Amino acid sequence: MAAETRRVVIAGAGPVGMVCALALNRCGVPVTVFESEAAPVPDQRAATIHPSTLEMLDELGVTEQIREHSLLSSTYRFHDRPTGEVVAEFDLGRLKDEIRFPYVLQYEQYKLTAAIAAAYANESDFDVRFSHTLTGLTDTASGIEVEYTSPAGPERIAAAYVVGCDGGRSTVRKLAGIEFEGFTYPERFIKIATSFDLQTIKPELSYRNYFSDPNEWANVFKVRGEAPEGLWRVILPIGPEEDDTTALSPARVEQRLQKFLPQDGEYHVEYRNVYGVNQRVAATFRRGRILLAGDSAHVNNPIGGMGMNGGIHDAINLTEKLAKVLAGASADLLDLYSRQRRHAAVNYVQAQTIANKRLLEERDPEVRRRNFDQLRRTAEKFETARAYMRRAALFDSLQDAAAIT
Predict the structure, then answer these.
(1) 306 CB-contact burial (10 Å; exposed 0-12 / middle 13-18 / buried 19+)
(2) Residues 344-368: pLDDT tens digits?
(3) What is the CATH code for 4-72+108-181+281-360?
(4) Distance (Å, rounded) from C-alpha 328 to C-alpha 160?
């Protein structure tokens, strides 16, 4: 193929799109990334990068680049919110002899996007265009024509393939006519970020915490943010009877935080957001020259931090196969990508995040007791703890997906 017809267009400059672009670029494939936003948006979305993902990013030279700007966390804890008890702790450090990175990095996704863009993008063969929106796709005899809008107006570009990394409401997926199968939770989630150090009133917090409560479960994580003291994120459910305006009001946010961890003064809130939550997977991750990865292909609840990681795993799997196809291998490799990564999304990311939510919100006292007893036993023994942590860190999903032919 001529250089221009080998070009891959990626819609979306989030972490999945940028990792996909970088990996393709390292394989000698020219890429153009279109992103509707004017710059990486400093929102408080995904932030946990699992050990399996750190290994992939290390192959691209990214892990060392971001580690000094991250919070390193080897442990995560399950708590019983009504009693305040720490039910179980899992420590990735116990796997130091078998995995390269026995910890997660707490590093916000907008920083990962910005770090890759700053270090590698904006050359002719790695072209990242912010304020550019993909609007149309047309098959041609030798590839696919991409329509997009830029600050200068509507334009077109020829590509060999298009990769949709443009989120749960993906334009690429809709243009391809691919069904997004699954369901939407009736409740929404609220994410609140505070600069107040929660460990001063609850020292048993690690950097990653899951609180089980039949009435109001919670996730609590620490990220570095933009200030030396860092930010604590608290994620809570909101019932369908509460409207967003009420939920986001300063008084209601303060009430929620005080109920969760009472303190004498007011909380300084840096960020608050309400969002709906889905569990959905695309019917296929490939249709002709159109491919899907990340949230465009699968979305899930955030309990366990698997969405961004699964998306980066998509990007690396896809890159390996797409580079071979562009070098002359059969395009059937792209169907294999779809089979492998859809299997991982359904059987690991979807299954695990649904199970995580059910564990935290369980109402039956006897079932809660049995769940806690099982968690304790799992965490105490090395072999069962090892199996639990490997699955949670998505190592098992990679191994299982790789076995699919």
Answers:
(1) buried
(2) 999 999 999 999 999 999 999 999 9
(3) 3.50.50.60
(4) 12
